[in-house]
Amino acid sequence: MITDQMQQQVASAPDIAIVNATILPMGGGAMIEQGTITLSGDTILAVGPAAAVDVAGAKKVIDARGRIVMPGFVNCHTHIASNMLLRGLLEDVQLFEWLQTMWKLKCNFDPETLYWASLAGLIEMLKSGITCFNEHFDAYAVSPQIRALSDVPLRATLGYGFADRGVYASIGDWSWTALDTFSDKVAAHHQSGNDRIHLGLSPHAPYSCGEDMFRNVREVADALGLVIHTHLAEGPQELKYVAETYGTTPVQWLHRLGFLKGDVTAAHCTQLNDDDIRILAETDVKIAHCPCCNAKLNSGTLRLRCVCEAGITVGLATDGPASHNSLDQFQEMKFAGMIHKDKTGDVEFLKTAELLELATSGAAKAMNRSETGVLEPGKKADVIIVDLDTIHCAPVYDVSAALVYSARADDVKTVIVDGRVLMEERELLLGIDEAEVRSRFREAAYRLRDRSL
Fold first, then answer.
1. Looking at the whole model, is its pTM more than 0.90?
2. What angle do CA 416, 418, 420 make, to 5 degrees?
3. What is the structure's pLDDT at 6?
4. Total Cβ atoms within 10 A of residue 424
5. What is the 3-state secondary structure (H, E, C) of the chain?
6. CATH dotted code for 4-71+374-428
7. Where in the chain are the domains?
8. CATH architecture of 73-366
9. 68 within 8 A of 403, measured Cβ to Cβ
10. Are strands 155-162 and 197-203 parallel, antiparallel or unpaired?
11. What is the distance between the alpha carbons of residues 129 and 327, in angstroms, rounded to a whole number?
């Protein structure tokens, strides 16, 4: 006879229990040694010391002895398909020269090429422990990545890219049409895939979108309840253009238009003065900090200390693999720590635990996806297991220091997104032939290059 109590126990039994783990909950939570985390469906059920978490009836038990369990990394500003196709093609140039050359290839993108590029980028992120990302589409073709996300089901906000001037003027008509009919895209794709996939609006930048476009994006975002994701104050050339065209800074110009609100993720922000920082704080704009690509393209360095002191939400991001060459938050954490200690002259600024927060909980907040980035009951079950028992991490005196300054992407052994194990012990559990993806992607990229340059 099945009693009510037995039915209750079965209903509350976890789908997955990760045991014997060193857990970094993030979000300010203290490290738990000999901890256990349980997952039920797409949600975290319990997190705590082993004695405090019931694993009875778990369908799957993962022994994480000697390993680190933490939230999946969140990449709050990137360009996947388009930039995968451009990686390593044009090096040692400044931002605007780089953009102009890259546009020659972008004009020749096709859906099948973008699909294989999307698959390759999603697999690279998955294998490096990135479980959630904020896509700024500068390929102007979103459907191939939506298709790829059905094969590699990461959590994502897909920002449709809009522009109408400069090198991007040719996609002006497409941008206006897309904005006018955006409610159709929302109906088809927003909050799909068990709420993993969200849509957003991504006006490209103050040098590539005019006043009317920024105003229209704001109206559409307000009407449909969508987030916005844009480049802002990215480099000296943008600063010069906006000053000459509008007589102010990029931040102050967008503020004047009524564009800046808490639903905006602003990527880069390397060229901020004190008034800009005050405005971003007052309007609750979030910043996606991309230190590697900013240094590589000589775009400047975010005034991170001033920004944090102003109370602005900041997350780490890789940008696209064309300007950083890697989708790897380990690299981003390490470089961020080093460059800000150098720029501030203060080795105590940006400690290892703070860098981990920027790459997880901070980045999730920066892209307005606070359901992830933290291990606590009720949050989404986006979890990674990292092995620090390697020669390049030994000895591990401090877990945070090892993760930030010694660990690498291939130290990520297991990845769980939305409660589903997508990779276990470095093996993809997706029914995908990674060798075929590499081959198809490589062939498509070479064909694109040959017909474009």
1. yes
2. 50
3. 32
4. 15
5. CCCHHHHHHHHHCCCEEEEEEEECCECCECCEEEEEEEEECCEEEEEEEHHHCCCCCCCEEEECCCEEEEECEEEEEECCHHHHCCCCCCCCCCHHHHHHHHHHHHCCCCHHHHHHHHHHHHHHHHHCCEEEEEEECCCCCCHHHHHHHHHCCCEEEEEEEECCCHHHHHHHHHHHHHHHCHHHHHHHHCCHHHHCEEEEEEECCCCCCCHHHHHHHHHHHHHHCCEEEEEECCCHHHHHHHHHHHCCCHHHHHHHCCCCCCCEEEEECCCCCHHHHHHHHHHCCEEEECHHHHHHCCCCCCCHHHHHHCCCCEEECCCCCCCCCCCCHHHHHHHHHHHHHHHHCCCCCCCHHHHHHHHCHHHHHHCCCCCCCCCCCCCECCEEEEECCCCCCCCCCCHHHHHHHHCCHHHEEEEEECCEEEEECCEECCCCCHHHHHHHHHHHHHHHHHHHC
6. 2.30.40.10
7. 4-71+374-428, 73-366
8. Alpha-Beta Barrel (3.20)
9. yes
10. parallel
11. 10
Q: How far is residue 86's CA from residue 291's CA, in Å, rounded to a whole number?
A: 19
Tens-level pLDDT at each residue, the chain (453 residues): 333 433 333 457 999 999 999 999 999 999 999 999 999 999 999 999 999 999 999 999 999 999 999 999 999 999 998 889 889 887 887 777 777 777 788 888 899 999 999 999 999 999 999 999 999 987 567 899 999 999 999 999 999 999 999 888 989 999 999 999 999 999 999 999 999 999 999 999 999 999 999 999 999 999 999 999 999 999 999 999 999 999 999 999 999 999 999 999 999 999 999 999 999 999 999 999 999 999 998 999 999 999 999 999 999 999 999 888 999 999 999 999 999 999 999 999 999 999 999 999 999 999 999 999 999 999 999 999 999 999 999 999 999 999 999 999 999 999 999 999 999 999 999 999 999 999 999 999 999 999 887
- Fold match between 4-71+374-428 and 73-366? no
- Name residue 324's amino acid: H
Q: Which of 333, 324, 343, 354 is nearest to 405 (CA)?
A: 333
- Provide the token pair at 199: 């849509």
Angle CA 112–118–124, to nearest 5: 145
The residue among 26, 137, 18 whose CA lies nearest residue 379 is: 26
